[in-house]
Amino acid sequence: MGGKKRICDEGEGVWLGSSGVVLIMMILVVQCSTSIGSVSAAAQVPAMFIFGDSLIDVGNNNYLSSLAKSNYYPYGCDFRAGPTGRFSNGRTVVDMLGNLLGLPYVPPFADPNTKGTKILGGVNYASAAAGILDETGQHFGQRYSLSQQVLNFESTLDQLRPMMSGANMTQYLAKSIAVLEFGSNDYINNYLLPSLYSSSYIYTPPAFANLLLNRYTQQILALHSVGLKKFVLAGIGPLGCIPNQRALAQPGRCVDYVNQILGSFNEGLRSLANQLNTNHPGAIFVYANTYAAFGDMLNNPALYGFSVIDRGCCGIGRDRGQITCLPYSVPCANRNQYIFWDAYHPTEAANAVLAWRAFNGPPSDCYPINVQQMALI
After folding, report:
1. Buried b (16+ CB within 10 A) or exposed e, 13-34
2. Is the CB of residue 109 less than 8 Å from the CB of residue 123?
3. Least CB-packed of 6, 14, 292, 333 within 10 Å?
4. Is the residue at 149 inside a domain?
5. Of the candidates 237, 109, 123, the residue with the CA atom closest to the CA atom of residue 183
6. Residues with catalytic annotation?
7. Residues 311 and 258 sit within 8 Å (Cβ to Cβ)
8. pLDDT tens digit string along 72-105?
9. Which residues span the domain enclosing 358?
10. In this structure, is residue 12 part of a structural domain?
11. Beta strand pairing status for 4-9 and 12-17?
């Protein structure tokens, strides 16, 4: 299986080097016929409800008074709608995951047009700079924290109830998938900024992870209590290897301390998924091992067609990681060979790998089952 293959969506495409990698070849199963604004007849689930931060924000921060925005070129330079508030050159992980599930692009909650039938395929509540803790990222201005995102979801439920009967609503929510991706900002925009936040003075790394997991559990259970039954809980990737952190390290190295302190959170999140599965029969909680999937790309880049792993495609300063991608700056031309788009976020090509591994990966990627298996339940 030589050559290159394309992951496509209605005229968009990202080409991924193959080098005989069956995993990436299988991305070709992504259909190109998903419509915008209505759920496809081939949809495997009714809807996807998305909670998280800038890794999966699709434009919510456009409507907030925030410094954390990406609604300008060259963000979106490879996305057919241009700059939309996605923090990448193209699509996010959840865009691609939704496509694999046969869903249209899930619209941002804050967009005034996200109403009526447009919400039937799900809503994206993710907000750049958001964290599990309400105070995380406050130096960027407004953002929807995890707790606010849960409240926003409950307002969506108020819109959905008049659109279907009680029994249909119960089944709709039970069959839909909730994707939650949190924690990165609680470290890079809280714990690791001692000049702005006191958390690292108060908590050891394990104690801070425990604080995050306790708060996280409360909100996950709140979502479960209103009817959601299928949860994808994404772990934190190797933050010590993002360009923003590499710019602080020895040349050519990741920040080992940062990667090490994430272990308590990721291991705890996997254990939490086990505990929730035991305590809530009839629901399924899946842990997506983002750290391992991203680490594999960093350790074996050529396997996925990547050649640049240590700097951003767009940005300023050392490793293009000290100042993130500014308006109308010129990004690298060979974007599909880069893992990182800017100081913090993956390229569309890297997102494609993460989406596929979550959708179809083994238990080491997605535990205890993957998203494709979850959709069949």
Report:
1. bbebbbeebebbeebeebeeeb
2. yes
3. 333
4. yes
5. 237
6. 54, 342, 345
7. no
8. 999 999 999 999 999 999 999 999 999 999 999 9
9. 42-292+347-376
10. no
11. antiparallel
Q: How far apart are the first and last CA of the chain?
A: 32
| pTM greater than the 0.90 cutoff | yes
The first and second tokens of residue 244, run together, are 């923003």
Confidence band, pLDDT 50/70/90 cuts, at residue 7: very low
The total number of structural domains in the chain stands at 1
Per-residue pLDDT of 113-156, as tens digits, reads 999 999 999 999 999 999 999 999 999 999 999 999 999 999 99
Beta carbons within 10 angstroms of residue 1's beta carbon: 10
Evaluate whether residue 336 is within a structural domain: no
Supply the DSSP string of 83-114, one letter for each residue.
-SSBSSSS--HHHHHHHHTTPPPPPBTTSTT-
Q: Is residue 15 part of a domain?
A: no
CB 359 within 8 Å of CB 7 = no
Number of CB atoms found within 10 A of residue 141's CB: 14
Phi and psi torsions of 92, nearest 5°: -90, 175
Q: What is the pLDDT of residue 2?
A: 37
The CATH code of the domain that includes 61 is: 3.40.50
- The residue assigned the tokens 């109403």 is 115
Half-sphere exposure of 234 (CA within 13 A, CB side): 28
